[in-house]
Design goal:
single chain; 793 residues; alpha+beta; eleven-stranded mixed β-sheet; six-stranded mixed β-barrel; 22 strands; 50% helix
Length: 793
């Protein structure tokens, strides 16, 4: 029986080649896109799940509550997890990561800078799962040991064994390579290139005042998480109240499951995924399959008159309704299977391109995973049944007597087809509007005034505490070049000023201890970065006392302190000891800098205190637009003359800016691509429906032309029904799109307003696409010779 169903289904496919091609093409595009989006979603949901104990690992994050604000940090104090392990038996182990950032290494004559080097506890490999190529889990038990990733080890040592080799930093500190691990998978909430034994450093591991360690706990299977979190207030009272209570600061913590960090964690200075995009892309995949299924339903019901005699004859010959339903479902499943096979080939071919666009590293092996096989089968069943269900029950319900008498007239399908077309274009219009607003927001962030000039500014990081006196010589040499406008130093790149420090600040109620972001700058900094003073003066090279007596603040700090006249206000550069002895130096506000963004636009502008220091760790060089290559070569030459044993590495400030929005740029490209393909699928169905409608009305068109009807009137006649359907989609799509994007925009501290013109332009574009889709068939029918359509009458 099944063989007979398949044979009949194949014959019908071949018989109606044009409509079969439209259905297969639409389903192929829908299934291909759905599978690619499924791979994206699965990858997003797989973050950190490769660790054997992932379900029992938690990260601790800190909530620092000041009287007027709450700071949320992913870092904690060093002794926190050690104390928790001592106090709670169900805490099996812990691991702490201290970020060293970018480090310079030497190995013989080879010198390299490496990003993302962390100092960690030796227990890190007992908590997390990393595959060792050389060495084992005891690799960091000894001081002075370092574990490298495969990529870094090969960079230093090529194919030679790295175990036992020694690396040196510029300050002559030596680290022995005690292990090499596979590169950290991309589906990790953070990655690293090297791990140094934490006991290699003499740090205050018992201090509760500083937040600079990322802390992780491994809990036992029967751990009571509520009991652990209930004990956090007691930790504050026991260890921290003596430090923070007098400042009005309260500390508490939150436990984050490791597997939820990537999609659910939104903390200061952290770049993660967003569960909203997972929901969005899942919905897009579903809607693409749904629109492709709607195409099949539309065309199948539209062709009901063609299949009516077939159904009537088969019923007269004894076919039951159930057998007819199975026959039509077999046809739809066969089309879906053909589309699936083509889609699998396309997915394999497009995977490298998709990885590049989406910023993923999805391997071909994932196409053979049980998950992917199951989703393929689910697509066949879902799409085959959804697309074939209504036509199957609709066509099998025809009465054989009226069909064979010639009195049959299809009923009920017209309204349903119109509803499906409205649904298709509502979904397409929603996606078009949403994509447009996403790009408007990205463009807004890309072009918003950051409060400083990021164009043509080179950033060079000092390494290992370069001598300050040499900086003055370097600066003088650089300024001899007419293409170099100015040179300045700061303690951190302008695009990534992080961390907070307690200052004692003059308030309306006296001196008060409060947390502010600090940064150190020199007297050339404001000019180099194009920052503006709104009050007071800049630091002066002619006033060495500015290093202790003066500070600059930003507008946000002035507003936080509610200062009407900020110039001259006192700020003590630190906290006053409890015994009152040896207080920190007292500086006065010398000037107020117009607010500038210290991080990306995902973070609000925070109150900032700028301290005067010369020869800081980051150099900013402002150059002219002409002769850029020659200017960089000149800077390199002067750097090598000043620091002959140091590597010269630089980056442009605007590159840091672009990196901050890279992930959203990629998601925007995905949205744009799949929105366009969704509209294409809808248009394929509309084209097929327009073709069929035109064929059904060819004699009516011939009569109209014979009676004097113009080609324009015929085109208008055939287009107006489809135009009406698209217009019906507008009041459905616009509120849905507005609600969805308004909610999405709420996650941005700085956002563009949703312009009414986006909605108008999207509706006009959708209408134009509809007209372009149907106009070919309309013109073809309007220009045809009416004699050919009427000669059989």
């Amino acid at each position: 029986m099944l063989k007979n169903y398949l044979k009949l289904a194949f014959r019908n496919l071949v018989k109606d080649k044009f409509y079969s091609l439209i259905n297969i093409l639409g389903l192929t595009i829908g299934v291909t896109c759905g599978m690619l989006l499924f791979l994206y979603v699965v990858d997003e949901l797989s973050y950190d799940r490769y660790h054997d104990k992932a379900s029992r690992i938690y990260r601790i994050v800190s909530y620092i509550r000041e009287p007027d604000k709450v700071n949320k940090w992913v870092s904690t104090q060093p002794p926190l997890v050690k104390t928790l392990k001592q106090d709670y038996p169900f805490v099996e182990n812990y691991a702490r990561f201290f970020p060293n950032g970018r480090m310079a290494f030497r190995q013989g004559e080879r010198r390299f800078y490496e990003e993302d080097i962390f100092s960690v506890d030796s227990t890190v490999f007992d908590v997390f799962t990393y595959k060792f190529i050389e060495g084992n889990g005891t690799a960091l038990h000894q001081p002075g040991s370092i574990v490298l990733t495969k990529r870094v080890a090969e960079r230093f040592f090529g194919k030679s064994p790295a175990l036992g080799q020694v690396l040196q930093t510029n300050d002559s500190t030596s680290y022995k390579v005690t292990g090499v691990i596979e590169d950290v998978p991309k589906n990790s909430h953070f990655t690293f290139n090297g791990l140094i034994s934490l006991n290699s450093f003499q740090r205050n591991a018992d201090g509760w005042g500083g937040f600079y360690i990322n802390s992780y706990l491994l809990l036992s299977k029967n751990a009571d998480l509520n009991k652990l979190e209930a004990g956090f207030p007691g930790l504050y009272e026991k260890y921290m109240s003596g430090i923070f209570k007098r400042m009005g600061i309260h500390i508490t913590y939150q436990m984050q499951p490791l597997t939820r960090i990537h999609l659910h964690s939104k903390f200061d200075g952290e770049s993660n995924g967003d569960i909203g995009y997972v929901y969005t892309f899942s919905a897009v995949a579903f809607f693409m399959l749904l629109i492709a299924s709607i195409n099949y339903m539309n065309l199948a019901t539209a062709q009901s008159a063609r299949r009516a005699k077939e159904v009537g004859l088969r019923k007269v010959m004894g076919s039951l309704k159930g057998a007819l339903v199975r026959q039509f479902l077999t046809e739809s499943i066969l089309i879906t299977l053909i589309s699936l096979v083509i889609s699998l080939i396309l997915v394999a071919l497009l995977l490298p391109f998709f990885n590049n666009v989406a910023g993923k590293a999805i391997s071909y092996m994932q196409l053979l995973s049980p998950q992917f096989v199951l989703i393929g089968l689910a697509v066949v069943v879902f799409t085959g049944l959804v697309s074939g269900s209504y036509p199957a029950f609709y066509l099998s319900s025809f009465e054989p007597a009226s069909v064979l008498k010639g009195t049959f007239k299809a009923r009920g399908g017209g309204f349903f087809r119109k509803a499906l077309v409205v649904t298709q274009f509502s979904i397409s219009l929603i996606m078009l509007i949403c994509t447009w607003i996403v790009y408007q927001q990205l463009n807004y962030m890309r072009n918003k005034d950051m409060g400083y000039d990021r164009e043509q500014v080179l950033t060079i990081d000092y390494q290992d505490g370069q001598p300050k006196d040499k900086y003055n010589a370097l600066r003088k040499a650089l300024l001899d070049n007419p293409n170099i406008q100015s040179v300045a130093t700061a303690s951190a790149p302008v695009s990534n000023i992080g961390g907070r420090v307690i200052f004692t600040v003059e308030s309306n109620a006296g001196m008060k201890e409060m947390a502010f972001k600090p940064t150190a700058i020199d007297h050339d900094y404001l000019n180099t970065m194009g920052m503006k003073l709104i009050a007071g003066r800049n630091f002066s090279n002619d006033l060495p006392a500015d290093t202790a007596n003066s500070v600059l603040i930003n507008e946000a700090a002035m507003k936080r302190m509610n200062w009407k006249e900020p110039i001259g206000k006192k700020i003590m550069l630190g906290t006053v000891p409890a015994d009152g002895k040896n207080p920190p130096p007292t500086a006065h506000v010398a000037g107020v800098v117009r607010d500038f963004h210290q991080q990306s636009l995902y973070n609000p502008i925070e109150p900032l205190i700028m301290i005067y220091r010369r020869g800081n760790g980051v150099i900013h060089v402002k150059i002219k637009t002409q002769n850029t290559a020659e200017t960089i070569a000149f800077i390199n030459q002067k750097w090598q003359q000043t620091y002959p044993d140091k590597l010269f590495e630089y980056r442009f400030l605007d590159q840091d800016f672009e990196t901050a929005y890279h992930a959203d740029e990629l998601r925007g490209k995905i949205c744009t691509t799949f929105s366009a393909l969704t509209i294409l699928i809808a248009c394929l169905g509309l084209f097929g429906l327009a073709t069929f409608t035109t064929e059904q009305r060819v004699k009516e068109i011939g009569v109209r032309k014979v009676l004097g009807g113009s080609a324009a009137s015929v085109v208008l006649l055939l287009s107006k029904d489809f135009t009406r359907l698209v217009l019906f989609s507008f009041p459905i799509a616009i509120p849905v799109a507005w609600f969805a994007m308004d909610k999405w925009l709420q996650s941005f501290p700085y956002k563009a307003n949703m312009s009414v013109w986006i909605f108008i332009a999207s509706c006009v574009a959708t209408l134009l696409i509809c007209w372009l889709t149907v106009i070919y068939q309309s013109l073809k029918a309007a220009l045809a010779n009416p004699v050919k359509s009427l000669r059989s009458e």
